[in-house]
Amino acid sequence: MKRVWIALVGLLVAVSFCGLLALQGRYTSMMVKMRRDQFDESVKRSLDQASKDLEHSETYHYLDSVISVYSDELIALDTTMVTPPHSVLSNPALIGIVSRDSAIRELPPMARAIHSPVTFSMNTANSDAISQSAANFQRAVRNAYVYQRGVLDRVIYAIMYNASEKSFEERINPQFLDACLRMSLERNGVTIPFHFKICTSDGREVYRCPDYDETGSQYSYTQTLFSNDPSTKMGVVIVHFPQQSQYVFGVVSMMLPAMVFTVILFLIFIVTIYLVVRQRKVTEMKNDFVNNMTHEFKTPISSISLAAQMLADKSVGKSEQMYENLGNVIYNESKRLRFQVEKVLQMSLYDRKDIALKPVELNADELIDSVVKIFALKVQQSGGSIETRLEADNPLVNVDEMHFTNIIFNLLENAVKYRRDDVALKLTIVTYNEGHDYCVSVEDNGIGIKKEDLRQIFERFYRVHTGNKHNVKGFGLGLAYVKKMIELHHGSIKAESEFGKWTRFIISIPNIKD
User: Which of 185, 191, 307, 392 has the smallest set of CB atoms within 10 Å of its CB?
Assistant: First the structure.
């Protein structure tokens, strides 16, 4: 699949997943908002009803006490519908009601509409007397109604007077308010625990429930008590629900599994796309590796084949010098071919986790010095120079001699490969100790490595290139092999470079303690 198709499919699926997650998130947010609004409305309605229940209870209590005081007068209204009590008849200026103890209680102003009793008589002999009697009866009923309303006004006045005489603390009954709140909340579907406190209108706390907890108090609800009274007689009840957040966001638990599964699928998709892209990249690098390997093998095989044909051709005269030259060609090219095969075989060890190393105790400075002497000729042939500063105080390490030699050789060969044509190659090898590690620094003044390539140079088959054309033929296996072997020796390697100027590789391997 082409890269553009992979990118297009990945983009479409990613947009689809993001849209699905956005829809689920929006739906969940709407559900939470609806749940919160419903909860707020239920609580406010419950508090309002509890406040009314408290006022109704107080009114009923006062009404019961007043009725017990004025029960005789109310009974008199039923038995004497027309004629007011004797006390009123004897003193028309006094508008009141006589209680059980014969004390005259003043009526409210509305009851003072009655100034005198009304009497009437019926004369059956006179036809006009019937009309007069009807009129008198109507007036009597009207006056009785006004009188009875005055009694009720007085009862209400007494209730208001008694209420105004008591302080807010005396009027409130916390236990009854608690029962009203609980009943109202349950009636509106709110069954989670709540805590409340009662305060006066000026903020002074009067009561709080015994198990009061501040948890969730930042989301409290306030309801005014005795709202029709003067401000000094009013109070407030403040209610909060410690489990309000769990109750409101409980609806999320229904959508959470779907969102989690969607995120998991999205992550699986990302991993799949990553693996596809990585596999495509590995395939490209392997194809490049095969092409380079074919080129690297083709040249020495052709040279060996040509030399063998010349040796076998009897028509060509051969001198002793010619035999020697053809033998050198076959030897050198076979040696070159063997070296390339060894590099491929080295990488066959890369994926093996049971590589059998043969570590021995040796002096790393001496080993590096011998490798440099062998490699110096190749550096000189390219017009360069090599400098060594073996300054390690403790050069003793426990390593596999063959693999450690290959590590140094690969780093030196890379320096020769990636030299600049306009500048003479200069190689510098320095050894030193850092803590309990033996360190080797291999620095060259070659073409350098870009920052984006510096992070990937230790990957298999990866080769630094310009565009799609590699500057130097190779397999892209050398540095991957170096890193693998150093890690197996419990060491580390890092690369530093400035593009177009220099490159430095630093190896650290644990020392053998003195």
Answer: 191
